[in-house]
From TrEMBL:
<dbReference type="GO" id="GO:0030337">
    <property type="term" value="F:DNA polymerase processivity factor activity"/>
</dbReference>
<keyword id="KW-0539">Nucleus</keyword>
<comment type="function">
    <text>This protein is an auxiliary protein of DNA polymerase delta and is involved in the control of eukaryotic DNA replication by increasing the polymerase's processivity during elongation of the leading strand.</text>
</comment>
<dbReference type="Pfam" id="PF00705">
    <property type="entry name" value="PCNA_N"/>
</dbReference>
<dbReference type="Pfam" id="PF02747">
    <property type="entry name" value="PCNA_C"/>
</dbReference>
<dbReference type="InterPro" id="IPR000730">
    <property type="entry name" value="Pr_cel_nuc_antig"/>
</dbReference>
<keyword id="KW-0235">DNA replication</keyword>
<dbReference type="GO" id="GO:0043626">
    <property type="term" value="C:PCNA complex"/>
</dbReference>
<dbReference type="GO" id="GO:0003677">
    <property type="term" value="F:DNA binding"/>
</dbReference>
<dbReference type="InterPro" id="IPR022648">
    <property type="entry name" value="Pr_cel_nuc_antig_N"/>
</dbReference>
<protein>
    <recommendedName>
        <fullName>DNA sliding clamp PCNA</fullName>
    </recommendedName>
</protein>
<dbReference type="InterPro" id="IPR022659">
    <property type="entry name" value="Pr_cel_nuc_antig_CS"/>
</dbReference>
<comment type="similarity">
    <text>Belongs to the PCNA family.</text>
</comment>
<dbReference type="GO" id="GO:0006275">
    <property type="term" value="P:regulation of DNA replication"/>
</dbReference>
<keyword id="KW-0238">DNA-binding</keyword>
<dbReference type="InterPro" id="IPR022649">
    <property type="entry name" value="Pr_cel_nuc_antig_C"/>
</dbReference>
<dbReference type="GO" id="GO:0006272">
    <property type="term" value="P:leading strand elongation"/>
</dbReference>
Length: 203
């Protein structure tokens, strides 16, 4: 038996929104330690590795390891039926071919149940080697999203250049070019530059 109850159901909705454009389907591996997902997009460019620890749920039960193949587009449609304040519970029996999503409103006035068929997905577990990076930059995900959205008006790709002076995002295309720079000498931005051993440029 598998059952996971998430009080902040909006977190699961945000996680799925972040990966559903990269992956059409994926295997959710459930164990006593939590839920893990690892998959590559169809073009084999991006690797998605997701881990939700069991202690992140209000209640979590997984009697034995369970792999559930899910269509993420269908899962996204189901989760859109949940309110941002709803409690979300996922349930599945050990040998089930379906998974159940239960949404409970905060005042318990409404309870909704949705059942989704599981997929038989043949996927190989990929090993992610430990890597020592020459540059590590941390900034709010919303800020990174805004930069990419703004620069996408001019090009299809973004060049990220990291030096000890700061971080520069740039792009160019047929209609023009754009550039966004973060400087190290600004206190709040300096905290985002965790480690830069040598200049690095990524495209």
């Amino acid at each position: 038996m598998f059952e996971a109850r998430l009080v902040q159901g909006s977190l699961l909705k945000k996680v799925l929104e972040a990966v559903k454009d990269l992956l059409s389907e994926a295997i959710f591996d459930c164990s006593s330690t939590g839920i893990a997902l690892q998959a590559m997009d169809s073009s084999h460019v991006s690797l998605v590795s997701l881990n939700i620890r069991s202690d992140g749920f209000e209640t979590y039960r997984c009697d034995r390891n369970l792999s559930m193949g899910m269509n993420l587009a269908t899962m996204s449609k189901i989760l859109k039926c949940a309110g941002n304040d709803d409690v979300i519970t996922m349930k599945a029996s050990d040998n089930a071919d379906t998974v159940t999503f239960m949404f409970e409103s905060q005042n318990n006035e409404k309870v909704s149940d949705y059942e989704m068929k599981l997929l038989d997905i043949d996927a190989e577990q990929l090993g992610i080697p430990d890597t020592e990076y020459s540059s590590v930059v941390k900034l709010p995900s919303g800020e990174f999203q805004r930069i990419c959205r703004d620069l996408s008006q001019f090009g299809d790709s973004v060049v990220i250049c990291c030096t000890k002076e700061g971080v520069k995002f740039s792009t160019s295309g047929d209609t023009g070019s754009g550039k966004v720079e973060f400087c190290c000498n600004i206190g709040t931005l300096f905290q985002t530059l965790q480690k830069i051993q040598k200049p690095v440029m990524m495209n």
